[in-house]
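Pinned message: reference record for PTHD3 protein
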Amino acid sequence: RLSCIRTNTWLASCGVLSSGLAVLSSFGLMLFCGVPFVVTVANAPFLILGVGVDDMFIMIASWEQSLRKKEKSSVKSLLAETYAEAALSVTITTLTDVLAFFIGAWTAFPSVRSFCLYTGTAFVFCYVYTMTFFGAVLVLNHRREQGNRHWLTCMRVDVGKDQAESSCLYNACCIGSCSRQPSQPEGEHPMNVFFKKYYGPFVTNKWIKVLLVLLYGAYLGGSIYGCTQIREGIDLRNLANDASYVIPYYDDDEKYFSTYGPRVMVVITESVDYWNESVRLGIENCAQNLE
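Predicted structure (tokens):
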């Protein structure tokens, strides 16, 4: 928003901070419990950031709707209404993510197991911080707006001052209007106007409906075909550290020995007298016959 009072820059920053706190808490807990940290775990913060920012948008949207419904209500009732609207959606998405990653922790690959444990725990902390820390930030930001304080400095700004005498830059940065006055109702967000007036009527047109069904059918057919082309397996090089000796080993193995097919190993399960020359010759003859 252009208003120096209604701008929610700090609110968005605290939403990102909430995701960062979740990553720090989960990493600290897993390291304290002795779960090994592997290079694939370094990708977890990006996943947590995506989910955390999504939860932040849901919370802010629910808070704005609660303000429109109950403009004169207390902060306690506003926050209760916000949680009633947003908590269900945030909880369901968190549960699905946590279950997916904790199920993945049953894999036999240690690196994948560590990644799933770190990420699943981070989702739990992200949910906790969204429901606690970010809710408190919403209330503090609301009190700042009610006090007509600047979004950056939190100092009171001039309200109702004659703006014609000042420059546009000064008016945008240093002069605000009383928050949510009846005489100055806040206009709808441009994104809401776009979906309500343009996008909604467009997709409900009967010919557009037919086109969308055809497009979805093509997408579904392509997806089914793609599933039949998936090659099952995993590249072990992706599970090792970039500086590990394993990576050049697999590179050389693929370069020089990939044409020979899978290796076959023979195990002798009985006790053998390797010091006996005749026994050693028998083992070599057996290996030659297998070849």
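Pinned by admin. Summary line: The beta strands are 158-159, 175-176.
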